Amino acid sequence: MSLPFTTFSKDYLDEIKTSITKYVTKTPVLSNKIINSICGAEIFFKCENFQKSGSFKFRAATNAVLNLDSAQKKNGVITHSSGNFAQALSLASQAQNITAHIVMPKNAPEFKKRAVLQCNNNLVECQSTIIDREKISKKIQDKYDLTFIHPSNNLNVILGNSTVVSELLEDHTDLDYIICPIGGGGLISGSALACEAYSSSCEVIGAEPTNVNDAYRSLQSKQIEYNSTTDTLADGLRTNLGDINFPIILKYVNTIICIDEIEIINAMKLIYDKLDMLIEPSSAVAFAAVLKEKEKFKGKKIGVIISGGNVENNNLPF
Amino acid sequence: MSLPFTTFSKDYLDEIKTSITKYVTKTPVLSNKIINSICGAEIFFKCENFQKSGSFKFRAATNAVLNLDSAQKKNGVITHSSGNFAQALSLASQAQNITAHIVMPKNAPEFKKRAVLQCNNNLVECQSTIIDREKISKKIQDKYDLTFIHPSNNLNVILGNSTVVSELLEDHTDLDYIICPIGGGGLISGSALACEAYSSSCEVIGAEPTNVNDAYRSLQSKQIEYNSTTDTLADGLRTNLGDINFPIILKYVNTIICIDEIEIINAMKLIYDKLDMLIEPSSAVAFAAVLKEKEKFKGKKIGVIISGGNVENNNLPF
């Protein structure tokens, strides 16, 4: 697969960052001495759990809706998502006075549905199969002439996501690695583009649950692989790569570390104990990669993207 | 009581801020749409729970040890504290290669003792009475010719604390109020000095548990009052005002809001639910003041100082 576009320049990614600046939160970067000591490395947590809507996806959604033309803005947008992108697109659309329709599987967590409903009345429930999601989305899209925005396989979404790393590398220029969780591939592809543009030496590494390691296998086979199960706590990482983000990942990402379920829980708990932050399991996957590969990361400076914090506080896995 | 010194200029407080910059974390300021909507105001949480040693007291301790003369640095320092200042002074002294002796009551939380022991071998336990604390401190101080650093009633401690608000007002120039918890008076006096120097319109307001509202009563009687009980969850706020910080509070603070125990728990839980952060009860007191006095704060921009996050995660009050 070849890249459908050239590498983006720092200037271009800076423009993207500037254009969404007034809507998104510049999220804090946290460090903790005890965690550094446990890891034997310097960790810089980029805390997208403090982003609006509770995850980095607000950057993606904001960039996507800002890039609609006036007719598209007037008609509105639609997506299907079981979680963070649903909340992100609802909130980002509300901020721009754009109507958003959200298709969510019936079995999505109730607290995520409530979060969507707080700023959006157009929530439609579907069966939890991807076929039903797509069928219902298409029906509503056609009925109202909406623009479909895919949660991860959309260039404006990817470019919106790139701003996580643009911000991080602007303040921490000397990172050796940046570790991203991989689900649909939107975050890591955006991160890789920014890393390429902002740093000559930093490398983006992926972290993925072993149980749904389609990206790990795709990198090996050089074609998009699929998962036969969605059996992971990291509910944000159950999705698959797409034809827009995969070529970017293939070009810029060399390493994906596979993380077992117990390692996800341990990483989540360590963040909770030492940083007093509750992060979602999908976020913990990136930190778990450092804990798993201590030798590789020894003495290095590592940006770890905490992708989101949307977790049900009364239903923790530890 | 009159002020033993003149008001500090912005330039002077800027110098303090600059001198500790490379040691302390510039802590993030967080906002949350749902919390704003619940409060009917715009809240800017200054998150000292992400400060080194887990509380603002690291600023105080750092400024205090940096201001020692060379003989004092050589001999070392001592304090007595049941919590955050013990950790802060241990860590700040370690960073400057200064020996710190810490006197802690036997019944201080084990996790706080462990945190001290991680960077300090000179931990001495005492009975939990203030008389025993002071007696044992004095004995060790005399034996090693140490400099005693009081956790709150010390000018360099107060000036170190002022940097919380210097940072906050630098980034958020248009705040109407800043709400601080009051225990020993070190944070609110530093905050008031910074507010006076950095803003012509912002007002510092105190928040104190009703059960130990010595500061509230002191402000009314214009003399230092004492508590007959230490019966509050907010363990960091059980202490009393001192002769150095009280005149500052008397001059610059007009309002102290008293907070009941259930209100502390509710505020702590709301931060946990909406921001996914665990903060200590002493921190929650300041936020509880906004929730309690919604009419007063309606439509205002309010800085709320989250003073620390040192809480035992498996022993939450909710």
If you consult CATH, what is the topology of the largest domain in chain A? Rossmann fold
Oligomer class:
homodimer
Strand and helix order of chain A: HEHEHHEHEHEHEHEHEHHEHHHE
Largest sheet of chain A: 6 strands, mixed
CATH architecture of the largest domain in chain A: 3-Layer(aba) Sandwich
Q: Biggest interface: chains and residue counts?
A: A-B, 24 and 24 residues
Unreliable parts of chain A: none
Mean pLDDT of chain A: 93
Strand order of the largest sheet of chain A: 1-2-10-7-8-9
From the spread of the alpha carbons, the general shape of chain A counts as globular
Name of the CATH class of the largest domain in chain A: Alpha Beta
Number of strands of chain A: 10
> How far is the N terminus from the C terminus of chain A?
41 Å
Helix coverage percent of residues of chain A? 40-55%
Structural class by helix and strand composition of chain A = alpha/beta
Strand content of chain A: 5-15%
How many helical elements of chain A?
A: 14
